[in-house]
UniProtKB/TrEMBL annotation:
Keyword Cytoplasm: no
NCBIfam families associated with the record: thrC
Function, in words: Catalyzes the gamma-elimination of phosphate from L-phosphohomoserine and the beta-addition of water to produce L-threonine.
CDD domains to which the protein is assigned, alphabetical: Thr-synth_2 (cd01560)
InterPro entries cross-referenced by the UniProt entry: Ser/Thr_deHydtase_PyrdxlP-BS, Thr_synth_N, Thr_synth_N_sf, Thr_synthase-like, Threonine_Synthase, TrpB-like_PALP, TrpB-like_PALP_sf
Pathway named in the protein's UniProt entry: Amino-acid biosynthesis; L-threonine biosynthesis; L-threonine from L-aspartate: step 5/5
Sample GO molecular function, one term: threonine synthase activity
This protein's UniProt keywords: Amino-acid biosynthesis, Lyase, Pyridoxal phosphate, Threonine biosynthesis
Cofactor: pyridoxal 5'-phosphate
Documented EC number(s): 4.2.3.1
Organism of provenance: Paenibacillus kribbensis
Keyword Lyase among record annotations: yes
Name recorded for this polypeptide: Threonine synthase
Amino acid sequence: MRYISTRGQVEAKGFIDTVLMGLADDGGLMVPEQIPVVPAATLEQWATLSYRELLLKVFALYINDEIPREDLEQLVERSYASFRHPEVTPVKKINESLSILELFHGPTFAFKDVALQFMGEFYSYVSKKQNEIIHILGATSGDTGAAAIQGVRGKEGIKICILHPHQKVSKVQELQMTTVDDKNVLNLSVQGNFDDCQKVIKDLFADLDFKGKHHLRAINSINFVRILAQTVYYFYAYFRAQESAGTKKINVSVPSGNFGNIFSGFLAKKMGLPIHKLIIATNENNILERFVKTGEYKPGDFKSTYSPSMDIQVASNFERYLYYFLGEDAAKVSEYMNNLKTEGRIVISAEDLQRVQQDFEALGASNEQCLDLIKKYKAEYDYLLDPHTACGIAAYEAYNGADEVCVTFATAHPAKFDEAIRLVDIQQEFPAPIEQLFSKPQHQQVVEHDEAEIVRQLEAFYV
């Protein structure tokens, strides 16, 4: 298994080198040269595996034995030791057509933990094996930052800096990042939105001299290991749904902002997992819905919503989908991405749009829809949704057919977004680790949306 760039200008690399590169040196995203297909008979054998066992099977197809089996088993065990549920990502049946995959049982109560606790252990492993300094640099719309910091805080040989949009994440998300008082952690609160933060990160990774000088490594979903780790729970969710689905087809509804989570499902489907519909759920920042419905990919006006982790207009992982959509033609991908840069949009033909609509359904839920669904599901099923999961439920209700069942992903614990929950007069009890955050001091630097100032902060931190 070798990895190449979506833009075709990077020499093929192995798994560890791909993860260490993060953003490809030509500005593209790294993808497998060939996607392994899992035969139906093997899927049957996998169906009864535990989450940890399933991860080992999936990763074995991609890592070229670059991590010995025994080492990988230890990495997996350490990664999920802090999860509060033995299944890691349990599936809860809500009614005959709906189940919810709970992805919030990790240390920071969000789906990002599933990939990032593993990634933290992986970076620590590589740092020790290769005697390499690792400086992790990332941007977050709320959950990535907390999960990444939790995954590497206090680890030798690693420093982490996370940019988040100032006062545009939930209070709990902010506290989970900024109450960490470890010397290897720097939080920069940027006057701007997530897209501003993400652009700075991409620009710094594209500066190969700066990237090399400071040993920069990516934690965002531009890094393929994030995608691969998330692919595992699509298999797990499908197998759990299959146990009671009978002859019904199985759909998956996924709250998605940066296209990473839904791309992981696209990858699982290309590997042979027979998901029927991949349903993209967004909020009012609905660039992905507009693309699926109209064929135009164009950032719109940024809106602050009750689901801030999806307040994103430029979805990084869209380029990976574009690569496969364009028949793995790197020259065409480069042309399309250049059009986005120069003209501010990508437009596809009506014929091509039909192909997109065979891959995805999509819905952008309004703030009001999300609040209504939080209230409805609490009343009818005594199940409390966070606002991102509520977007996923809105998409399930819109697109799940009569002969279909759906697994909707619960991407965060509702306690992380109490600002929205309180709007529907629901009082929730915070888990103790979240309650304790409110009495801790914060550690962050508030900076302007200015790349030069951010670079100054980084260079002082890396000394």
